[in-house]
Design goal:
By secondary structure, the protein is of the alpha/beta class. The protein is 37% helix and 14% strand. The protein has helices spanning 32-45, 61-70, 104-118, 137-149, 163-172, 193-200, 239-259, 263-272, 287-294, 303-312, 325-328; strands at residues 3-5, 12-14, 18-19, 50-52, 78-83, 85-86, 99-100, 123-128, 153-159, 177-181, 203-207, 278-280. Strands 3-4-5-8-9-10-11-12 form an eight-stranded parallel β-sheet. It has a two-stranded antiparallel ribbon with strand order 1-2. This is Aldo/keto reductase.
Length: 333
């Protein structure tokens, strides 16, 4: 597996990481046995070293699952987790009700809980999952820096922030990585935070590089998705937007056939080609999809292919926002 360093931090990880979120919720029912087998294949067979989770995935289940896997393997992987998103106890499971708490007080409680669930002494990369403007980012990062000094975390990350927020945070303590959604059909970060990442020497971790599976052609409508699948709420999967976006998935399929790879590999390879400081973390809970995703490392995209993809996915080509209205209020802060 190719290795990449996140910015100038010195943190080196596999060029493709593994997003573990779907192993616990958002994309259908859990299958812990298959998830653990997928984690084992990722590390033992494919050389993936970056495993990404968060305390809110499955309300702690995802960290606990990863903790079970880490026993005996801790020194071989980079563990990334997050804090700041909470769901009210009375919120429906399939709703998008969120409480964002990026306060130092909550962070200190959250990190101890994450360390316990993961069964580790230190977290390699700790993200503030979302920013609440009521808490200055300087206060949040300052408190996270105290965790670095205390040896509870090694690196600090932010998720779904804009360039100005990153600058303010980085002035308090070096930020190792920004994690945000980035794919052929989500490219808004190219005009703001990505240039700032490059300027400051901050790595970029791209989640949902497959457009939540849509760009692979695997999803043709919401009627076949599990009842509580997050994509049932996603505007890009609804009505006229779905019909319009299907043409983009068809285009990906056609270009992939020309290149000689699968649609998933084309999408991930495109992200890899956007810069050495970018690491995609496609999520899966099944070994067969994992093997397909990892194959993207070997895919070389010629300049004319990259240019064609840029044209196909030019600004305005995608119909619908990437989150429901409530979710869009929490990003690019």
């Amino acid at each position: 597996m190719e290795q990449r360093t996140l910015g100038t931090s010195g943190l080196t990880v596999s060029a493709i990481g593994l997003g573990c979120m779907g192993m616990s919720e958002f994309y259908g029912t859990r299958d812990d046995a298959e998830s653990l087998a997928t984690l084992e294949a990722a590390v033992e067979e494919h050389g993936i070293t970056l495993l990404d989770t968060a305390d809110m995935y499955g309300s702690g289940h995802n960290e606990e699952l990863l903790g079970r896997f880490l026993k005996g393997r801790r020194d071989r992987v980079t563990v990334a987790t997050k804090f700041a998103i909470r769901r009210p106890d009375d919120a429906p499971v399939d709703s998008y009700v969120r409480i964002i708490d990026s306060s130092p007080a909550y962070m200190r409680t959250a990190v101890e809980a994450s360390l316990k669930r993961l069964g580790v002494d230190v977290i390699d990369l700790y993200y503030c999952h979302r920013i609440n403007p009521a808490t200055p980012v300087e206060d949040t990062v300052g408190a996270m820096a105290e965790l670095v000094t205390a040896g509870k975390i090694r690196h600090i990350g932010l998720s779904e922030v804009r360039g100005e927020t990153l600058r303010r945070a980085h002035a308090v303590h070096p930020i190792t990585a920004v994690q945000s959604e980035y794919s052929l059909w989500t490219r808004d970060h190219e005009t703001d935070v990505l240039p700032v990442c490059r300027e400051l020497g901050v790595g970029f971790v791209a989640y949902s590089p497959l457009g939540r599976g849509f760009l692979t052609g695997a999803v043709t409508g919401t009627e076949d998705l599990p009842e509580r699948d997050f994509r049932r709420l996603n505007p890009r999967f609804q009505g006229e937007a779905l019909a319009a976006n299907r043409r983009l998935a068809d285009a990906v399929r056609d270009v992939a056939a020309e290149v000689g790879c699968t649609p998933a590999q084309l999408c991930i390879a495109w992200v890899l080609h956007q810069g050495r400081g970018i690491v995609p973390i496609p999520g899966t809970k099944r070994r067969k999809y994992l093997a397909d995703n990892v194959g993207a490392v070997s895919v070389v995209l010629a300049p004319d292919i990259l240019a064609r993809l840029d044209t196909l996915f030019a600004p305005g080509s995608v119909t619908g926002t990437r989150y429901p209205e409530a979710g869009m209020k929490l990003v690019n802060i």
